[in-house]
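My main concern about presentation is that the manuscript never shows what a single data entry looks like. In essence, backbone conformation is discretised, so a fold becomes a row of integers matching the chain in length. An entry of this sort, consisting of the sequence and the corresponding backbone structure tokens, reads as follows:
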Amino acid sequence: MDIKKTFLKGRLTPKSLSLLALMVALNIVLGRLLSISTPITRISFSFLPVALGAMILGPLGGALVGGLGDLLGALIFPTGPYFPGYTFTAALSGAVFGLFLIRTPYRFRFTLIPVAFNQIFCSLLMNSLWICLLTPQKSFGVIVLSRAVQCVLMAAVQLVTLHFTAVGLRRVKAFSL
């Protein structure tokens, strides 16, 4: 198995790099400017460019969109001190999307698995751990409970959005970069 073809789908061209940059910019806009943020939760559609980058460019493309989007978003629009744990979680989320969403033919379970993993492991557990480390006056259990409702709601939004996006992109054959 060729690692380059698996993790970047064999495409390191000017077209794929510009698509990667576009997805990173869209991730920053949706995550930092067009989102609802509180100290504990953030509700946004920033998962969409990460998943699109992962669908088209593979796991490495998804990880780059997620990681660079979080890093550049934190540097350009800081909402507090930069913490690399969030960047790691964003990159991991993009890689997981890429491992499952590059499959053809598309099946709904290829959307269900990464959304469930990202919402349970990345968002609920890892991001709650980062919040707990940054705000020591709150316990991990309290943070997890307060974020559980957000994760369930965001999982439903992600499933519906990603399913229809994947079906639509496959219809217009957007994967032939």
Summary: The two ends are 21 Å apart (CA to CA). The chain has seven helices and two strands. Residues 1-6 have pLDDT under 50 and may be disordered.
